[in-house]
Write a structure and sequence with these properties.
The protein is mainly β and 77 residues long. Helix content is 8%, strand content 36%. The model has no long low-confidence stretch (mean pLDDT 91).
């Protein structure tokens, strides 16, 4: 999930709904798209099916969903 509209390529605004968070707050989903980002090594990667929630002030990523999608996650230091 991201609150940065410029991060999205071809935002599909027909996908909407609500997102409930653990603290009980609710946010409106304003679309879905692929986000392309740059890695520290200069490579560019894309992450599909990312929700756009304009109220977010930080990006949120689920390690579990990445794992289910076949991504390898390395956390160090």
């Amino acid at each position: 999930m991201s609150g940065s509209r410029v991060a999205f390529a071809d935002l599909d605004t027909s996908v909407t709904g609500f997102m409930w968070f653990e603290d009980g707050s609710i946010a409106w989903i304003e679309g879905i798209s692929t986000v392309v980002f740059s890695c520290k090594n200069g490579e560019h990667w894309s992450l599909p099916n990312v929700y756009y929630l304009s109220c977010l002030t930080a990006n949120i990523i689920s390690i579990g969903q990445l794992d289910e999608g076949g991504y390898q996650v390395l956390v160090e230091d």
